[in-house]
Amino acid sequence: MSSTGRVWRGFPTAASTTRCLSWAARCTCWEAAMLQGGLCSAVDLYSPEEDRWISLPPMPTPRAGAAVAVLGKQLLVVGGVGEDQSPLKVVEIYNTEEGRWRKRSALREALMGLSISVKDGRALAVGGMGADLLPRSILQQYDLRKDVWALLPPMPTPRYDANTHLLANKLYVTGGRHCKRPVKAFEVYDTEMRSWTTLPTMPCKRSYGGIIWDPDGRLCLLGGLRQGGGHQSSKFTKNVNIFDSNQGCWLKSDETVAMKTKRADLCAASLRGRMVVAGGLGHEPTALDTVEAFHPQKKKWESLSPMAFPRCSTSFIVTRDRLLVVGGVNQVPSSANEILYIKEEEYL
């Protein structure tokens, strides 16, 4: 695959001031990306059709690190960290038809680092860190129509900043952190049976890696900072680990292909059937501009055109078969925005 088949293009800077972006959500009702960043209340919307950012009414509560879910034509913002650096229990929702924010029923306790998914119009919020800085095992469900939070069976392993993915009636919870240290726990919640199952743990403890669920229902862990043991220091890795949800096991190392470049805190997405990684933090440490994609037929990673601006800690989202990479950090917060296009002949 030649790099000419894939093209990066810049797009306008967000309407609000430069900031590190804490979340990005695809709003299917608009086919647009919404961003909220840093410890502030600003919210911006990018319209692909108009190629411009639109400033929306600010959130009533300034916050960072909130959990976000799209419920129909409404944007749910849950918990996070407030101006006093303490977790929040505040829940707010933005109605796209009314063009305004409303406060909703608060969480049972203040939490940051929640992970959230949507199932049948309800939000499932997992884990989090409380005001005592300890992780939680809580699983709670929000019903928008009733404006009620309900407790469900807690997950076996307390943690925060976990990755969640909904596959049919199964909610997979991967990794996360416990008292600032990464955990290897991998568990799944059956929404019909209302029970948890412990799956084979992740092959290694890592943080700041990329996570992709491919179209075949496989969990792919890419790169990251691998935690050292004993007197060993943590190291950047280019390893790829894959869990096959159909077989219920991790693939052997000789069945996976490592990336070309060691990187952590990267952008990782599935774009037209291929795993794509961009930017991140490399050795020294240095922000990267390199981009690579995995070719499933050739079974190898191939270099793509680099981003114009090296950075890590980006927000990113795939919409209309385009990868939007927004903001990030390169020693200081970046306002760079870029889109990766794939030419027609590059389709799988």
Automatic annotation (TrEMBL):
InterPro entries: Kelch-typ_b-propeller, Kelch_1, Kelch_domain_containing_8. Gene3D superfamilies: Kelch-type beta propeller. It holds the Pfam family Kelch_1. Keywords: Kelch repeat, Repeat. SUPFAM superfamilies: Kelch motif. The keyword Ribonucleoprotein does not apply. This is (spotted green pufferfish) hypothetical protein. It comes from Tetraodon nigroviridis.
